[in-house]
Amino acid sequence: MVTVTVSDCLPVTEDVAWVPVDDPTAAGRARRIATALADRLGFTEQRTAEIGIVVTELATNLDRHARHGTLVVRSVRATTHAAVEVVAADLGPGIGDPAAAIADGHSTAGTLGVGLGAVHRLSDTVTVFSEPGSGTVVTARFQPAGADLAGDDAAGMTRPITGEEVCGDAYAVMRANGRLRLMMCDGSGHGPLAASAAQEAVRVFCERPADEPPEQVLAAIHAALRSSRGGAVAVADLAPAEGRVRFAGLGNIAASVVLGDRKQGMISVPGIAGYQARTIRAFDHELPAGAAVVLHSDGLTEKWRPAQWTALFDSTPLVIAAALVRDAGVRNDDAGVLVGKPRP
């Protein structure tokens, strides 16, 4: 049996704040949140100021050129290093040529491209996904000099229900033995008690042996949640070398394998982790090269289809997660999504 080390579940990402960009004051609000986070994480004064510039540019563009814009400020923590991550998403006019939009001096009236040159210059990594008429997602990461925070093969996002400060959905990722393991928990209800249950699921998941079958991991989480509100939980073990994903789900976590326009659902069994589980089973599914695995709570509708977007699933896991929350998320529930794309 292979023992899990702390690094197997790192880096850990936290969605620090969701900032709706619905008026010009939102840019200042987002900048203050991002620079305060950078300061807490130990960034230099100059780098903190540069993060503030990028956030201001993104939020200002959302206000001027987009509809239903949102800016998410995130922390990404490893053992000795931490990064600041920013996600800007909207339902605006989109950008016809994202590559040209990130060039300094490029400006097209009515699009989000204005100012992306500064975002590109000042960020360590930037990804822009846009489809004309359907909106844009921009992700930017800032990390300490010399740091290399792994994690571009999986990413998730969580958004609390309107009116709550904490989200009852949580996820975790484990990387070990050439495999990628994903866990999503939707704590029952909303607010702090739901969040506490979901975080307990994260803790147990990260403490289990790396080669333990997903159904046994799920059974351990089920036992640990008996003193909590419980919730829906799913564990997916991606083995790209074998072309297989083994999936165990309990409750209403939606799960699918996506390749091109094909979305193949994976099977969960009825129940509530911590309360009711007549049986816990795992099922094997094909994992073609280049496919993505998506897990999400019922805070996202299951009606989304890959064909809604031209090339979304060719992008990064974080961009995919952000677009799914934007386009399939519902506001009257916590929303959580986790996307895994094993490296070729």
From TrEMBL:
It holds the Pfam family HATPase_c_2. This is Anti-sigma B factor RsbT / Phosphoserine phosphatase RsbX (EC). The lineage of its organism: Bacteria, Bacillati, Actinomycetota, Actinomycetes, Pseudonocardiales. SMART domains: PP2C_SIG. The keyword DNA damage does not apply. InterPro entries: HATPase_C_sf, HATPase_dom, PPM-type-like_dom_sf, PPM-type_phosphatase-like_dom, Ptase_RsbX. GO terms for molecular function: hydrolase activity. It comes from the Bacteria. Keywords: Hydrolase. It is an enzyme of class 3 (hydrolase). Its EC number is 3.1.3.3. Residues 149-342 form the PPM-type phosphatase domain.
